[in-house]
Automatic annotation (TrEMBL):
The keyword Signal does not apply. One of its GO terms (biological process) is mRNA catabolic process. Its EC number is 3.1.-.-. GO terms for molecular function: hydrolase activity; RNA binding; RNA endonuclease activity. Signal peptide: none annotated. The keyword Nuclease applies. The gene is rny. Keywords: Coiled coil, Endonuclease, Hydrolase, Nuclease, RNA-binding. Residues 47-113 form a coiled coil. CDD domains: HDc, KH-I_RNaseY. Residues 403-496 form the HD domain. Pfam families: HD, KH_1, RNase_Y_N. This is Ribonuclease Y. Endoribonuclease that initiates mRNA decay.
């Protein structure tokens, strides 16, 4: 039953109760009137009034009955409408149930297709993972085979060294036996020599007395005269011997030094082509330039503000240029832009997120490169801050040569030289490896990289030998130790060998022209030839205008002017040639 039906029923009951009450009151009044006197006018008037009231009550009852009939008809209509509404609701519930069943069936179908697709994707991922694992296993197997071969080679070398050591021990034992026998023979010979010396002393005394008698000179006077004669002759012979020894030492030293340097460079076997950093990023299309710039340039401004790298976008097809003096920051910017281009979402917030990821990735790459270089050189104990600074040199170049690779190569060359000279190999390799550590901070700290590197090494606990070798490798400080000298030599070998460094053709040609102009502008110069890619210059002078002393002065002046005006890798040798010719004709 609805609320409307309930209200109608309550109204009908109330009206019924009112009618019943009115009828009861009328009947009671009639009974009272029947018992009164009929001739009383008041009674008659009261009766008429009661009859009128009764008629009014009957009319009210009739109206109530009609209202009840109307209410009943309205209730019937409401019941009909409720029945219709129930039928519609039932139909709607049936339709909703049908649509729910259809939706469930469709959801089951979609879910089944999703399960099938997921299984197919999972199978593809498992296949790709299996292939990747097989490739990793193949790489690991190859690496294992190479390591096993290296272990076998090292074992063979160790066996060979052990055999040579055994042979050396045997030779030393045999030599010790020979020395014992020689010692016994020398003892017997000493005894015989003592006896002979006593006889010679007696004969010498007799001869001296005879000479004094014949020459008329005392022994002291004869000794003085003899000593003076022998002293003069010895001085002359000593001077000749010293001159010969010095000449032989110069020739031998130069030849041995050349041999040591050549042997060290050959044993290093470094790359012939130096690497160079090219800060150009290739794009998949020119439309990507507009996305990099962004609306009213907001993306490019956000990129330059976050990374500190200038982004140059010109008419070059499908390429942009990154410019920054700090190589590490430039690499972080390049990697950030590369990730943004691959991702496709370029906006200021995304630029900051990708920049943090790229910076962490570059830091990990730098540290890994520094650790690999330390392992290759054989240095184990070093301060962690120095490892971080060494890693930054992975992206630093000098005349196109990677600085970190230059340090590794310099350390190997210095180690070979130290081994040839029987010096402290680990100390010299450490000095050579750390000699350019200051280049990691030359963009942040004022001063020469040699002095900066020496301060860093001293700050992080390196020995004074290493510190002095670092600060003296460019002659800012005069070298005082053999470590400093070998560090200079190995640095020159690594930077000056063919193919190690390179420069642009225009700068190279300008340098050669300037060298020839400097030498050709001096007085008395006839011809100038730049040789060996500008590493040597031959100056031909007119012999009638320049003498030997003037040739030496000219060579020194040309070398000094080249040092002051030009920048070049390695060193340049200046040779002044003065030739005199006399020609006669026989007729």
């Amino acid at each position: 039953m609805s609320a409307f039906d309930t209200v109608l029923l309550v109204v009908v009951l109330i009206l019924t109760l009112v009618v019943v009450g009115a009828l009861t009151v009328g009947l009671r009044t009639l009974r009272q009137l029947g018992g009164a006197r009929p001739a009383d006018p008041a009674f008659i008037a009261e009766k008429d009034r009661q009859e009128q009231s009764l008629a009014a009550l009957r009319n009210a009852a009739d109206e109530a009955n009609s209202t009840i009939d109307v209410a009943k008809s309205a209730a019937a209509a409401a019941r009909a409408e409720a029945a219709a509404a129930k039928a519609e609701a039932k139909a709607a519930r049936a339709e909703a149930r049908r649509m729910l069943d259809d939706a469930r069936a469709e959801a089951d179908t979609v879910l089944e297709r999703a399960h099938k697709q997921a299984e197919a994707d999972a199978e593809q991922l498992r296949t790709a993972a299996r292939r990747g694992g097989e490739r990793e296993v193949a790489v690991l197997a190859a690496t294992t085979r190479e390591q096993a071969a290296e272990v076998d080679r090292r074992a063979a070398r160790m066996d060979e060294r052990e055999r040579l050591h055994t042979e050396e021990v045997e030779r030393l034992a045999e030599r010790e036996r020979q020395l014992s026998a020689a010692s016994a023979a020398l003892a017997a010979r000493d005894a015989a020599l003592d006896q002979r010396e006593a006889g010679l002393a007696e004969a010498e005394l007799h001869r001296r007395r005879e000479l004094e008698r014949v020459a008329g000179l005392t022994a002291e006077a004869a000794r003085t005269e003899l000593i003076e004669a022998i002293e003069g002759q010895a001085k002359r012979e000593a001077a000749l011997l010293v001159r010969d020894i010095e000449a032989d030492a110069r020739g031998t030293a130069e030849q041995r030094a050349r041999h040591i340097v050549v042997d060290a460079i050959q044993r290093v076997a470094s790359e012939q082509t130096a690497e160079s950093v090219v800060s150009v990023l290739h794009l998949p299309g020119d439309e990507m330039k507009g996305r990099i710039i962004g609306r009213e340039g907001r993306n490019i401004r956000a990129f330059e503000s976050v990374t500190g790298v200038n982004l140059i976008i010109d008419d070059t097809p499908e390429a942009v240029l990154l410019s920054c003096f700090d190589p590490v920051r430039r690499e972080v910017g390049r990697l950030t832009l590369e990730k943004l281009v691959l991702d496709g979402r370029i906006h200021p917030h995304r630029i900051e997120e990708v920049y943090d990821l790229a910076r962490q990735e570059v830091e990990q790459l730098c540290r890994r490169a520094a650790e690999d270089a330390l392992v290759e050189v054989g240095i184990t104990e070093i301060h962690p801050e120095l490892i971080t600074l060494l890693g930054r040199l992975r992206y630093r170049t000098s005349y196109g040569q990677n600085v970190l690779k230059h340090l590794v190569e310099t350390a190997h060359i210095a180690g070979v030289m130290a081994a040839e000279l029987r010096l402290d190999v680990p100390l010299i390799k450490r000095s050579a490896f750390l000699h350019d550590i200051g280049k990691a901070l030359t963009h942040e700290v004022e001063g020469s990289h040699a002095i900066i590197g020496a301060d860093l090494a001293r700050k992080y606990g390196e020995s004074e030998e290493v510190v002095h070798a670092i600060e003296a490798h460019h002659n800012e400080v005069q070298p005082q130790t053999i470590e400093a000298v070998l560090t200079q030599a190995s640095d020159a070998c690594s930077g000056g060998r063919p193919g190690a460094r390179r420069e642009s053709l225009e700068a190279y040609v300008k340098r050669l022209e300037r060298i020839e102009e400097i030498a050709g502008g001096k007085g008395g110069v006839e011809k100038v030839f730049a040789m060996q890619a500008g590493r040597e210059i031959r100056v031909m002078v007119k012999p009638e205008h320049v003498d030997d002393i003037g040739a030496a002065v000219l060579a020194r002046d040309v070398a000094k002017q080249i040092e002051e005006e030009l920048t070049y890798p390695g060193q340049i040798r200046v040779t002044v040639v003065r030739e005199s010719r006399v020609t006669e004709i026989a007729r």
